[in-house]
Amino acid sequence: MTSATSRRRPDDDAExxxxxxxxxxxxxxxxxxxAGLDVLLLEKSTFPRDxxxxxxxxxxxxxxxxxxxxxxxxxxxxxxxxxxxxxxxxVSLELDWPxxxxxxxxxxxxxxxxxxxxxxxxxxxxxxxxxxxxTVTGALTDERTGRIVGVRAKQGPERTPVTYRAPLxxxxxxxxxxxxxxxxxxxxxxxxxxxxxxxxxxxxxxxxDFLESHLELWDRSNPAEPKLLPGYGWIFGxxxxxxxxxxxxxxxxxxxGRTDYRQLLRSWLDGTPEEWGFREPNATGxxxxxxxxxxxxxxPHYRDGLLLVGDAGGMVNPFNGEGIAYAxxxxxxxxxxxxxxxxxxxxxxREQALRRYPTAVSQALGGYFRMGNIFSKLIGNPTxxxxxxxHGLPRxxxxxxxxxxxxxxYDAKGGDAMDRVISATTRLTPxx
Length: 432
Ligand SMILES: Cc1cc2nc3c(=O)[nH]c(=O)nc-3n(C[C@H](O)[C@H](O)[C@H](O)COP(=O)(O)OP(=O)(O)OC[C@H]3O[C@@H](n4cnc5c(N)ncnc54)[C@H](O)[C@@H]3O)c2cc1C
Known about the structure:
- This protein is an alpha+beta fold.
- It folds into 3 domains: 229 residues, 3-Layer(bba) Sandwich (FAD/NAD(P)-binding domain), CATH 3.50.50; 101 residues; 48 residues, no CATH class.
- It contains 10 helices and 21 strands.
- A hairpin with a 2-residue loop joins strand 5 and strand 6.
- Helix 1 runs parallel beside helix 3, helix 6 runs antiparallel to helix 7 and helix 7 packs across helix 10.
- Flavin-adenine dinucleotide binds next to helix 1, strand 3, strand 9, strand 13 and strand 19.
């Protein structure tokens, strides 16, 4: 009896099953299929489908798109932005994305409806077999070893029970993490969570060279007595006449879990200038919301034939709520370990290759996420946040440093003095 990975068995449906065709699943499936593996990509919805998101992608995410071979030029339909506008403490500061060797100098905005469809089609083009309308309900395990040998699912409009078998499964099913939960891999309460809501409006602010981030949200319903609201907001122009506006709150804030987030969004937006258009008649859809699993809040990232990737492994950046770049980055690392595993002759050495995955994500992101977890505790305290906004924002050089830190954009080797400070600190911070 062995508890290590075997290669494909006669009754297997694929060499690898990838559950969920968001950025994590489609990226992993693309790399795996390109390496020649037989990949089954199971997705509960049908494409194109929406996903509640801010639709903003920093240069870190753009790098992942370029690595995947996607044409990210404006001619190919991508709306570029040149940096971040930070608003708070009565100041508005425009910061260009840093000039770096490791990352491109632009971010992009693209509706998830279209973005996720593009990535999923890319995975199919690479050879992955995608099966839509298939909701995975749990893991199939080998009774003797406890190892995952496939998944159970409900399929089609009748929700017909089906099973699919494979020696390896990638959980890319997002924040619900149903597959991991079915194996008892629970959420960690010592890591931050966020919750965010967003809505689209038609607005004259649709074309903007900057992603806009609001460090303070004010309720100005009574102009004589403006009230500071909890949370941080964004305004991302979509370039098509609409704007994606939203806000997020961290679990370290007192307001977390006790707030009507939709009402909070309304209170903030009602107080924004009339001419921006963030009023009910201009809304093009409903308020959507979801949780943000941060700072590796679900571990272990590998166990018994199951790899957790993207939101399923809690890979949202605790500094800024960005998750697409990290979903794609972890997918690439996971695919790399799986490809190496399949190239090995014995079950034990295949298992060794798979155990490299948690180490690889930890090396890539662990120190940085750990700093983010500490940061999230600090800014959960309104006094610290107010001091930082008041004294930090007016100092441009300091803010350039903060931008590099918050967006995880620095050259890991070399770079300028700021890059070297961030790089050394992430290396010295014990991995999450
Ligand atoms: C309001 C909000 C705003 C955000 N804004 C940004 C932003 O501007 N930029 C950014 O980078 N990140 C943002 N994020 C975070 C980002 O959306 C996620 O981190 C990212 O989508 C994670 O990708 P993923 O592939 O891991 O998971 P997901 O994108 O959630 O994909 C999971 C996929 O799995 C499928 N699935 C789920 N369960 C099952 C199942 N049981 N069986 C089969 N299929 C299943 C889903 O349908 C989906 O296709 C935001 C999040 C929220 C909530």
